[in-house]
Amino acid sequence: MMPKYLVIFVFCWMNIAFGQSNSNSVTSVFHAGAAHTGVYTGENYSSFAGLKWKFKSQGKIFSSPAISNGIAYIGSADHNLYAIDIKTGKQLWKFTTGGAVHSSPAINGNIVCFGSFDGHYYALNAKTGTLIWKFKTGGEKLVGAKSLWAMKPHDQYMNDLYDFFLSSPIFSSNNLTVYFGSSDGNMYALNAVSGKLKWTFKTKGLIHTTPALYNGKLYFGSWDTFFYAVDATSGKQLWKFKTGDQPVVHLLEGVQGSATCSNGMVYFGARDSYLYALNANTGKMTWKYSAQGSWILTTPAIQSGVVYTSTSDTYIFAALDAKTGKQKFSYKANGYLYSSAAIGGSTAYFGDFTGKLSAVNLKSGKLTGHFTTDGRNRNAAKLLKKDTLDYNYISTGKDNELYATSVKIMDQLYTLGPIVSSPVISNGVIYFGSADGCLYALGLK
């Protein structure tokens, strides 16, 4: 989600055009990295029944929660992975790493696995938080470039302020292997019990997407602009698919969104402003959906032949025919959409960057309820224009060509308690994290 003033500026400067359950079951949803469709059976609620509890960490939460055996697990930028009792909202334990925990946890029996910006992926005892193993990657970092999006000063390296996540781990169906990507460009396969390396697959870009495992194949995207299919047992490449890029100005267009697989197809979004539908066996494109220049970074959810996706700076939640890509309806939110939707019955739940969690009816495309974070309640009146995020409104009077301006504005936006974390539904309760540092638990009705 590139601020619109930069799109205009770069276009004029270069004269180019570009686009931009059951309480004992495991429920894990990873923002921009779900390994499943994000659909919850038997959870047919339509709105929110109020706050049950909230747990406050000491850092921003971009990680999405995982729920298992009465415990919610979630990472925080304060370097910790937390285990929270879902009945009381009280901390059971925390595990401290050497960096921000922006990946989402995955549960395999009595093991919880996650990654940290300290360059390690960890496996802990899910009940006690005791370390079982840790694996060192080649290092984790945000994507970035010199003079990103042509911002000044032109000799300064700039982190991409919208690269929120690390790859989240997933386990194989037999629970013997764990897979995850890394900023070092590798996809890793480890023995899930010992943490020993089985294989690596190298790309030419950072991998912050979470792999999807489907019919013995891993599907994932890289910041090198390619989407890959590899054999889950050997790590051998089966095919790769090229998404769009911009070779003149470094816009960091790559694949930031993770994939969902269904009925022989794989669906994923990219920064080139398209949602792609590919044949999962061959990698051949069946259709693509244009977001009209807006990034697509969320993980698609699929239910009853419909694909649900979201856009960044056009704020659109869209329902598409899974076979043709034809839009069935769209709903406009109040801010950037990085929170992948959770589908429960006939309702979709997703958060936006203004700190608003929305419930949208999937038959009518209409809002049925919403919840706002503490930060939004405090700061919406002074930051939002008609209750909607407008970057140009916030940046009025500032030098928008300076990277420092983008940093300051992002810090202002964080005071809204943006919801980048993807919600998880379990037994009539929806759980999600916020950049205000809280894990929220809301009742559904």
What does this entry look like structurally?
The longest helix has 12 residues, at 403-414. This protein has a 5-stranded antiparallel beta sheet with strand order 1-4-5-6-7, with no helix packed on it. Strands 2-30-31-32-33 form a 5-stranded mixed beta sheet. With 445 residues, it is mainly beta. The chain is 8% helix and 39% strand.
Q: What's the topology here?
A:
Blueprint: H1 4-14, E1 27-28, E2 39-40, E3 48-56, E4 66-68, E5 71-75, E6 80-85, E7 91-96, E8 106-108, E9 111-115, E10 120-125, E11 131-136, E12 144-146, E13 157-159, E14 170-171, E15 177-181, E16 186-191, E17 197-202, E18 212-214, E19 217-221, E20 226-231, E21 237-242, E22 260-262, E23 265-269, E24 274-279, E25 285-290, E26 301-303, E27 306-310, E28 316-321, E29 327-332, E30 342-344, E31 347-351, E32 356-361, E33 367-372, H2 374-383, H3 391-394, H4 403-414, E34 424-426, E35 429-433, E36 438-444
Parallel strand pairs: 2-30
Antiparallel strand pairs: 1-4, 3-36, 4-5, 5-6, 6-7, 8-9, 9-10, 10-11, 12-13, 14-15, 15-16, 16-17, 18-19, 19-20, 20-21, 22-23, 23-24, 24-25, 26-27, 27-28, 28-29, 30-31, 31-32, 32-33, 34-35, 35-36
Tell me roughly what share of residues is in helical segments. under 10%
**What is the CATH class designation?**
Mainly Beta
Mean of residue pLDDT values: 91
Unreliable residue stretches: 1-36
Binned strand content? 35-45%
Our measurement of the CA-to-CA distance between the termini, rounded to an integer number of angstroms, reads: 33 Å
Order of strands across the main sheet: 1-4-5-6-7
